Amino acid sequence: MTWAAAHIHSASDARRLAKKRLPWMIFDYIDGSAGEETGAKRNRAALDAATLRPRILQNVSERSLSTTLFGKPSQRPFGIAPMGMCNLSGVGADLMLARLAAKYQVPHGVSTVASTPMEKIIEVAEGHAWFQLYFSGDGVGTFKLVERAKAAGYETLVLTADVPEVGRRPRELRHGFKMPFRIGPKQFIDFALHPHWSLSALFAGKPQMANFDMDGYEFDRTESRARADWDTLKRLRDAWDGNLVVKGVLDVDDAVSLRNAGVDAVQVSSHGARQLESAPSPFSLLPAMRAALGPDYPIFFDSGLRSGEDALKALHAGADYVFFGRALQFAIAAGGEAGLAKLWDVFSDELSIAMAQTGLTKLP
């Protein structure tokens, strides 16, 4: 285990170490949120305010963190959220996450803008990968990606629906963050002051968006995605015979309409507060979502999670499964694959200990 990995005892440790190693532009791309970032604070405040009920004398000596997901076993009730350009956090990050997914039989959310081809990721993940889809432009390229994911063997498609326009993230804008990189004097100085990251990136080659080598389709991260509507969803449902999840759901009426439209699960999420600063805390909506959708309909959750206790709170509040995001990238930036494994163990230990403290031998 590396020195840095050995010093990761929490998600905040991973973030602190990553901040030292990453160029400012990269750190703020991963860490930043929309506007003045009050949405991110609201997400954390809601989770922090929630409490768990301690129980005693329950014989919790044997506990299981396993669950099922779309009828298949998963060794943890948490997976890997789709995150764009993960290889910015560390060379080979996409495949580190894929190997973790294979080891624990958890879903690795593969972003439309991943920096490793979707085919390679699902191969390394041994099938434990879900493809996350953005609708973009007129949708022609989007449906090409759907066919490509199907051909690669993906069984679950996740439509991210909360980005009709890309949110304004001032930290990104101040650094001039763009993909592909445009290197000016400011960025050159930033990279020069972070030689560990810069030299690794130089030898590995500049990270690229790897899923856009199709004829006639180039992805523009800032392109409007505003044309997507309920007819788009119907076309997608007709084109995809696997599991279909819609991510970015923050309205109960929308969730019910999605269920009625044949969507297999909803993911309650504010995109990590990166889109609409004034969005409500997704965690605060889980009880209402569960009440409206009934006890058996799958509800997934992400946004603001930083610990195994957070995961348990979300499961108690109505989620069936949760996803960690940027904290995993920080662990990679801090300590590479060893850092990722260490933080995953931290999350698992935190969850197991919280279950013991609250009298649980199996997940709620």
Automatic annotation (TrEMBL):
Entries under PROSITE patterns matching the protein: FMN_HYDROXY_ACID_DH_2
Xref: Pfam families: FMN_dh
Keyword Oxidoreductase assigned: yes
GO CC entries: plasma membrane
FMN hydroxy acid dehydrogenase domain location: 3-364
Necessary cofactors: FMN
Active-site residues from the entry: 271 (proton acceptor)
Keywords: Flavoprotein, FMN, Oxidoreductase
Record-linked Gene3D superfamilies: Aldolase class I
GO molecular function term, any single one: L-lactate dehydrogenase (NAD+) activity
Binding site for FMN: 82-84, 111, 160, 247, 269, 302-306, 325-326
E.C. number: 1.1.99.31
Family designation: Belongs to the FMN-dependent alpha-hydroxy acid dehydrogenase family.
Entry protein name: (S)-mandelate dehydrogenase
UniProt source species: Planktotalea frisia
